[in-house]
Amino acid sequence: MIKVNHIVRRASAVIFQHPLKTENQKLKMKCSFVLQQLTIPNLLSLLRILLLIPISILLLKNDPGQIWIIFTLILIAAGTDFLDGLLARKLNQVTDFGKILDPVADKIGIGMVAVILMIQNKIPLWFLLAIIGRDILILAGGLIIKEKKGIVLQSNKYGKWTALIITAYLIVAFLNLYVLEFLRSLLLVISIILIIISLISYSLRFLKTLNLNK
Asked: The whole model's pTM is what?
């Protein structure tokens, strides 16, 4: 009888629980989750995205007098790309949100700069399409794995090297200096090779992860 009364009291407490209190608890949980994502590495990734605003504006103005300002901003953005992953591992702040945010920041940054440089005839259209095509395939594969396996595929070394070399190529193309013409052509070739290698690497990881526990 005592056990039955205890169950009834517990059930009544749940049924008649104050809705405002429940909503406050949900709000606190959401705020706590958001704060957990605001790690130093994730803030650096967000900073990289924010830097795209002044970089894009200055690139579109195409003012030769501001070339070194743009160059400096691009280097700072590239520096955050190096630091966010390093600090995430050193500070033990690797999160699923960070695994998504870091490569997304890379793709948005590289994509926006590449589009502007293509419009200014500083890089070929086919190279822009190669970048966008690769990113769409990798993003689609990541979404499928997340949906089917609940796993977030982190960017690997091939992806990082590809982003680094493409960034270097875009910087050289932006500077558009005759003395850098050979380096520009070399970086373009290496970029294409790495795009192919990274696609193969991600495809193998995709198939391996998809076949887990089968």
From this structure: 0.77
